[in-house]
Design goal:
- It contains 21 helices and 35 strands.
- With 657 residues, the protein is of the alpha+beta class.
- The strands form nine sheets. An eight-stranded mixed beta sheet has the order 18-22-23-30-27-26-24-25, with helices on both faces. The chain has a five-stranded mixed beta sheet with strand order 2-1-7-4-5. Strands 8, 9, 10, 14 and 15 form a five-stranded antiparallel beta sheet that branches.
- The longest helix has 22 residues.
- The termini are far apart.
- The mean pLDDT is 93.
Length: 657
């Protein structure tokens, strides 16, 4: 019998008979390892443990408690979910059930959509199926056989999926007992490997194939983990996330709202816009101190500029396009003739900044030129993709572009990383992971340019002492980028700022400077943002702090609440003194009990209350109550105001003092 050579992760090589399965290999090495192993990687490809090994190759065993193992647990849980649904409601058709971030879902077609009340019954049935421990087995069917079998079962969606499988791929069927599904695999050994640490979380609607002209499906979401402790921690995080939801808190704190007449655009209320103003003032001071110049560029630009920059061909589907003509007011006539030139609302600021750079001759002595703009941009996101402040159609970026010589990349990168760390430290956000995203499949520029750009950015990061991971294929279409992944107070990850190295746009838009030898050279363009967008960053701050924003950012920093009407005049005087000291203060002199006022301002997340009654008015004192604290502290009003003025200053102003 022909022998094959199998290489193990430690470099050891063993010979086996051709056709030996991964199961046989792992059982021959260690019974304890075999007990934990649920799949394998054969030549780097995740595979069923029962697959035969027919050629030389490398093997790596996948245990249930590994990252790959977690993905398989969730994949197999989706299959168990589908079997449970069809056992309970046999006429239901199953469609697709992928693994997603933090869990899985499965889409079903039935006359009556599922409700949240159905989830507990489904969970109970899933638990039974898992306990049965049916083995996952793989079969390869012909296309005709697969379509015949699924059609006979009334599974019309599966028939359509078989037709969609490329001709060069096999039609794989995975069975678990009597139930089976169309699937690319791989799977673990048995349903028992899924374990009981799973939870169905919600029901939603979805269109088949994402097409709103097709059938409406019921989507059941769930999650699964390797153990109960991990599941409990995740469910606790979901509870916390619900409490911290910026959409809910934004309403309670009266910060902003959305409405259908302006999909994806924010109506900022006075309190919400006060948070914005504090952030904008803070970051502007940081940029001024770091040598940036601030500019303002147009909202509407001719599509010819977007064609020249490359965005028209690669980003047009996300742009709002506007005809350059005067609309008709004639009754019955078309509003727009369609004969005018096309303009586009800018989705980003970079091409406009190049136009400013090109005004007048630039010398090597002028570089680096750090050009900032709080630029309002529009992106034509699908309505269904919009999500509060986190995903909008109109956004304002704390955007900047650094025009530099190639020999300045390291220094500018180090300078920006220092600025970034300072800002996020001031915001109380310190858990940051750095990733270098490299060239995507669809990109501008040649491979030589990309090689140079990626190497330059990696060298600059290394010189700055920053540890980072690679994110292959995740770069912008014009250049590699550095991503900043923030982990918030409850363990969620957000991508905020960005730093992108671009050799392409200066070439496309003909930006040059006069080098020391008198020749014309292209600048390198460094695209960078610290917050990313004000909208999203404010949303992240609200959720990270559960609405209890740092004092310097709070829209109302203190409310002076009177206990009796005799203290109203004293309360008003305190408010005036606080405002004179730069404190955002309000008076609450309503004819309500003090406990009612305290509760109401706690819901509004006001950081401090100065409670005053007749005694405080006579003695010139205040009773200070802090949000989240049960106690209170009585102190002279002047001392309280002085302390508050020092505490409420923005971080950069505190550092200056």
């Amino acid at each position: 019998m022909k022998m094959i050579k199998v290489t193990f992760p430690d470099g050891a090589v063993r010979e086996y008979s051709r056709g030996t399965t991964g199961t046989t290999v792992v059982e021959g090495i260690s019974p304890s390892l075999a007990k934990k192993t649920v799949a394998m990687k054969w030549n780097g490809v995740l595979s069923d443990l029962a697959d035969p090994l027919n050629d030389d190759g490398s093997i790596e065993f996948v245990t249930r408690d590994s990252t790959d193992g977690l993905g398989l647990i969730r994949h197999d849980a989706a299959h168990v979910l589908a079997e449970a649904v069809q056992e309970l409601w046999p006429s239901t058709q199953v469609t697709i059930g992928p693994v997603i971030d933090n869990g899985f879902y499965y889409d079903f077609y039935r006359e009556a959509p599922f409700s949240e009340d159905d989830l507990r019954a489904i969970e109970k049935k899933m638990s039974e199926i898992i306990q049965r421990g049916a083995a996952f087995t793989k079969e390869v069917w012909s296309r005709d056989e697969a379509k015949r079998v699924f059609a006979s079962k009334g599974e019309d969606f599966k028939v359509e999926l078989v037709d969609a499988i490329p001709e060069d791929q096999q039609v794989k069927i995975y069975k678990q007992g009597q139930w089976f599904d169309l699937c690319r695999g791989p799977h673990m050994r048995t349903t028992k490997d899924v374990g009981q640490a799973f939870k169905l979380t919600k029901v939603a609607g979805a269109y088949w194939r994402g097409d709103n002209n097709r059938e409406v499906l019921s989507r059941i979401y769930g999650t699964a983990f390797a153990n109960q402790a991990d599941l409990d921690a995740y469910l606790h995080m979901l509870e916390e996330a619900e409490k911290r939801d910026h959409r809910k808190l934004g309403q309670e704190m009266d910060l902003y709202h959305f409405q259908p007449e302006a999909q994806g655009s924010v109506f900022w209320h006075p309190k919400g816009y006060m948070v914005w103003r504090q952030l904008e003032g803070y970051i502007r001071r940081r940029l001024d101190a770091d040598g940036y110049v601030e500019v303002k560029t147009p909202q509407l630009l001719d599509n010819k500029l977007w064609e020249q920059s490359g965005h028209w061909g690669k980003f047009r589907e996300n742009m709002f396009v506007v005809p350059d003509e005067i609309p008709s007011t004639e009754e019955g006539a078309p509003v727009i003739s369609g004969e005018g030139n096309l303009l586009a609302l800018k989705p980003m600021n970079c091409p406009a900044h190049v136009q400013i750079f090109k005004q007048g001759t630039k010398s090597y002595r002028d570089l680096p030129l750090r050009m900032a703009e709080f630029g309002c941009c529009h992106r034509n996101e699908a309505h269904g993709a919009l999500h509060g402040l986190m995903r909008v159609r109109q956004m304002t970026q704390d955007d900047a572009h650094i025009f530099a010589r190639e020999d300045q990349i390291k220094d500018e990168t180090a300078r920006f990383l220092k600025l970034f760390a300072t800002v996020y430290g001031d915001m109380g956000l310190s858990n940051i992971r750095y990733k270098l995203a490299t060239r995507p499949d669809v990109r501008a520029g040649n491979d030589e340019t990309w090689d140079r750009a990626e190497e330059a950015l990696a060298d600059a990061l290394a010189a700055s002492g920053i540890a980072f991971d690679y994110a292959p294929g995740e770069g912008a279409f014009y250049g590699p980028k550095l991503e900043f992944h923030l982990t918030d107070a409850i363990g969620r990850t957000w991508q905020c700022g960005t730093y992108q190295l671009d050799y392409v746009l200066p070439e496309r838009l003909d930006a040059t400077y006069v080098a020391e030898d008198g020749s014309r050279q292209r600048p390198v363009m460094l695209h960078r943002a610290v917050f990313g967008s004000f909208e999203r960053f404010i949303g992240i701050l609200i959720e990270n702090y559960a609405g209890k924003l740092p004092l310097w950012l709070a829209p109302t920093q203190v409310v002076v609440a009177t206990i009796v009407s005799e203290a109203d005049g004293y309360g008003q005087k305190l408010v005036e003194q606080l405002r004179a000291g730069g404190i955002r203060a309000e008076l609450d002199a309503r004819n309500e009990k003090i406990n009612y006022k305290v509760r109401e301002h706690s819901v509004g997340k006001v950081p401090l209350l100065f409670v005053v009654g007749k005694r405080e008015a006579e003695e010139g004192t205040v009773s200070v109550r802090r949000l989240g604290s049960e106690g209170q502290k009585v102190m002279p009003a002047t001392d309280a105001i002085v302390e508050l003025m020092a505490e409420a200053a923005a971080p950069d102003l505190k550092a200056t003092k």
